[in-house]
Amino acid sequence: MQIVMRAGPGVFGALALVLVLAAITFSPGEAAGQAQPIAFPHKVHVQDYRIDCQYCHSEARRSEYAGIPSVTRCMGCHKITAADRPEVQKLQEYFNNQAPIPWVRVHKLPEFVHFPHKRHVRAGLACQTCHGPVETMTVAERVAPLTMGWCVECHTTRKAPVDCMVCHR
After folding, report:
1. Is the per-residue pLDDT at 8 higher than 60?
2. In whole angstroms, what is the distance from residue 107 CA to residue 104 CA?
3. Does 22 map to a domain?
């Protein structure tokens, strides 16, 4: 006696769904705590030395993007401060080669989303609202989902505009 099992289209559909859900669930996403070319301890700079976020991310108050500080900005302090440390020596190498640091992006929104940092900064919103407790992080990671629902909930709570064209262009 031979038993033959046949799978119909429903089984293949269910299997495909399981595989897609597994890929979404277990995919690393956007640089969630990924290693960077230079180990930058936000905790040391923000919590220990009390350097304001906007000192390094100065574009946040006047632009759509907060921006990543240039090597020159970093070397403004590190020509003298902690120059003997291995990570600062890596920084010095980028500076000497006049090369930008190839940081791995942690926070990225879809192309169709317009997020002006300057509006949020001028409204007095703390950077931690969207970026999480960066001041305690040794490796930057994405904490908030930054989904449309998450943003709309924040806008609704703070009585900020929820018109589609405010964020979508």
Report:
1. no
2. 9
3. no
Provide the domain count of the chain: 1
Collapsing DSSP states into helix, strand and coil, what is residue 2?
A: coil
Burial of 71 (0-12, 13-18, 19+ CB in 10 A): buried
Residue 64 lies in a domain: yes
| Residues near 95 by beta carbon (within 8 Å), at least 6 away in sequence | 71, 72, 74, 75
Q: What is the dihedral of CA 139, 143, 148, 150, to 10 degrees?
A: -160
Q: Where are the alpha helices (DSSP H) in 6-147?
A: 9-26, 42, 53-56, 71-78, 86-96, 117-122, 128-131
DSSP letter for each residue of 116-147: -HHHHHHTT--THHHH--GGG-SS----S---
Does a structural domain hold residue 127? yes
Q: pLDDT tens digits for 58-69?
A: 999 988 888 889
With respect to residue 83, please indicate whether it lies within any of the assigned structural domains.
Answer: no
Q: What is the value of pTM for the model shown?
A: 0.72
Query: For residue 132, what are the domain limits?
Result: 42-68+103-167
**pLDDT value for 65:** 84
Tokens describing residue 78 = 């590190």
pLDDT digits (tens, 9 = 90+) for 17-59: 433 333 333 333 444 567 899 999 999 999 999 999 999 999 9
Among residues 162, 164, 130, which one has the least CA distance to residue 147? Answer: 130
